[in-house]
Amino acid sequence: MEAHEENTHARLMQLRSDVLDPGVTAQNGRIVKNTGDGFLATFDTARDATRCALSLLARDPGSRLHTVWDMMAGIAKSGRL
């Protein structure tokens, strides 16, 4: 794992600057915290947040993010939040 750590970090930083930052900003959002492989963003409205999430998912249809999104949507529908 250590042999690939620098490449992985570089790829994450590139992904953030190329996809995440502009995607959040385009929907009136702001990244307020980074957790290494995650982030917390705030938006002016729930509509902006949803549009951002959907636009990020649309960039990579086969992504693991779809699994996470589906799981969180299921939790929200069940009322367990």
Automatic annotation (TrEMBL):
* Gene3D superfamilies noted in UniProt: Nucleotide cyclase
Q: Name the chain's protein.
A: Guanylate cyclase domain-containing protein
Taxonomy of the source species:
Bacteria, Pseudomonadati, Pseudomonadota, Alphaproteobacteria, Hyphomicrobiales
